Amino acid sequence: DSPKPVDYLSSLNERQRLAVEHGSGKVARPLLIIAGAGSGKTNTLAHRVVHLIVNGADPRRILLMTFSRRAAVEMTKRVERIASQVLGDRASVMTDGLTWAGTFHSVGARLLRDYALDIGLDPAFTIHDREDSADLMNLIRHELGLSKTESRFPAKQTCLSIYSRSVNAQAPLDEVLADDFPWCHNWVDELKKLFAAYVEAKQAQNVLDYDDLLLYWAELAKEAAFAEEIGSRFDHILVDEYQDTNRLQAAILLALKPDGSGVTVVGDDAQSIYAFRAADIRNILDFPKSFTPEAEVVTLDRNYRSTEPILAAANAVIAEAEERFTKDLWTERKSSAKPALVTVRDDTAQATYVCDAILAEREAGTRLKEQAVLFRTTHHSGSLEVELTRRNIPFVKFGGLKFLDSAHVKDVLATLRFAENPRDRVAGFRVLQLLPGVGPSFAGQVIDAMETALDPTMGLQALRAPQRVAEDWPGFVTLFDELRRKSSSWPSDLEHVRLWYEPHLERIHESAAARRGDLMQLEQIAAGYPSRERFLTDLTLDPPAASSDHAGPPHRDDDYLFLSTIHSAKGQEWKNVYVLNVVDGCIPACLGAGERKEIEEERRLLYVAMTRAKDSLHLMMPQRFYVENQVGRGDRHVYGLRSRFIPDHALQHFEQTTWPVAETKSGMGARSRASVDLRARMRGAWS
Ligand code: ATP
Ligand code: MG
């Protein structure tokens, strides 16, 4: 039956509507929506999905790619909400069919499992997160004798970054080294050897790292037959936040839909903040010309999110960028409240100020959930987290130390992974060494024995453990056997692992009770997954954010505050936003070492942060802050200068305040305040 009158389109402005209805009825030319923050790009994309479905598109044949799993879930919900205006109760049935919504990486993982046998992979492959990848890289460094301290060979993380950059940017090693890692350039031959061995090891162990999910997918898509087959599984491919995709992702898209039919991408070049992970702003800028006929381009310039003063301040910040972003946004949301630029004494005062402000807002009726605190790097929120905990303000932290990064959660997941894929040596080493008395050498023997045996469990059972391990050995063998036989049906697997792990947990880690709580929570998460494999894949790719090491994750419907790195806050919005440490050395983070392009990316980062705010925005400037882990210098205090991204002539857009207003007892505080003023003046003299 035909849809009701198109009232679901009536809330859109003319150009949003144009984008939504683009190509209606016919095979659509590719479409690019390029527009500034808060102009309704994501909203338009959601409406477009509804529109396609209402007009007969099969939701199972729509591929929707977002920047994070959370964004995908939110998008699906939004689609359902909009659809219910037209379809009523039938909306959910329809959006249930929208199963291909996720990140490039998760979609890649799913497709690769489908096609594994066709491309020489074992479908039981497990996935390494960045830490696992670095561990494997390290293992191989040792094997190749490249890790001797006197040789000053790059650290494992650096090796992985170089490798990853080269893969994602599809750039030769030479070029990557010259451009981004010049200090590693004389290691080019050794690095090549290392990476070759790394690739071999991954294959031997049947593991894929994050980059492989894109790389294998891109390679698969280069094979004409597969490209055709996969491409024709989808009538529509829609991508949000396209400015932060890399060369591989663009190549994949192009291979699946060479003529761009049914492709819609959406993004904002002024918000490109992932170049450090090889995202390439050229993708979005060159998109229209990648097709014949060229893609349709729709721009939007009305911002629906922020009040006029917030937008004016954000525009003033981005106007200083070297690159010209010509999309000047306007809004009808009048307000007299300028964003606040708050000078505080130090990190502690910053935490107090922010907590006070948040609580006052809550008193005035703004729920915690409508407020967010954003920061450049995850450790910037330390003092604030302490203060929030002290005052009993519940919060969830995103983008920082993920739930999954905590050692105990990794131990448990590695156990599952090892059972899923006994060739996964990183997982194997981790699990086996949980047993007292097992070191790398015996662990290596065990894994080898399992690999040469006909069946890994038999290999394990046949092994004679040394005396010192004897006590804990049988328990492990039984567990492994159980997990392999999958006799314990999912998700009770996880409970088995926990029960086996608990004594080790108490032996290895402090605060065992809190950690046990995390594991219980993991079981709850697992209950939502149909299979062990899906659970492991999803969690490895995009772990749930929770700061269980701090306040503990609040209950689902409780009111809680958002703490997030700016990177993870992308695409979202809150009524009130507080940005910490808007001082040189934090934003931008890379002083001195900072090349121009890196500085420019930091500027866009501040722009992203500011444009998250709807009604109220606070930029915090501690005069004194703590810098952790300065190479070779240890932790130290430094004095903060207002971020260079807020030049003097932009100050008119802010309400400047100093807090606390009264002179403090601490001479240090007073002195640092004077020095800041003087330095700012000196700098001003030259501008
Ligand atoms: P970002 O660049 O930050 O990702 P965006 O361009 O994707 O932003 P959205 O998140 O889609 O913007 O929309 C911003 C806000 O504006 C949302 O609250 C959305 O509901 C609202 N909005 C978008 N379009 C309209 C419209 N036509 N009428 C009213 N509100 C709108
Ligand atoms: Mg968006």
Automatic annotation (TrEMBL):
Domain UvrD-like helicase ATP-binding per the UniProt entry, residue ranges: 10-307
EC number: 5.6.2.4
InterPro entries: DExx_box_DNA_helicase_dom_sf, DNA_helicase_UvrD-like_C, DNA_helicase_UvrD/REP, P-loop_NTPase, UvrD-like_ATP-bd
UvrD-like helicase C-terminal domain boundaries: 308-571
Biological process terms in GO annotation: recombinational repair
SUPFAM superfamilies given in the database record: P-loop containing nucleoside triphosphate hydrolases
GO molecular function, one term: DNA binding
A cellular component term, taken from the record's GO annotations: cytosol
First-tier enzyme category under EC: isomerase
Chain segments annotated as transmembrane: none
CDD domains per record: DEXQc_UvrD (cd17932)
Keywords for this protein: ATP-binding, Helicase, Hydrolase, Isomerase, Nucleotide-binding
Catalytic activity of the protein: ATP + H2O = ADP + phosphate + H(+); Couples ATP hydrolysis with the unwinding of duplex DNA by translocating in the 3'-5' direction
Record-listed ATP binding positions: A35, G36, A37, G38, S39, G40, K41, T42
Gene3D superfamilies: 1.10.10.160, P-loop containing nucleotide triphosphate hydrolases, PCRA, domain 4
Entry superkingdom: Bacteria
Family recorded in the similarity comment: Belongs to the helicase family. UvrD subfamily.
Cited PANTHER family: DNA 3'-5' HELICASE, UVRD / RECB / PCRA DNA HELICASE FAMILY MEMBER
Protein name: DNA 3'-5' helicase
Native species: Mesorhizobium hungaricum
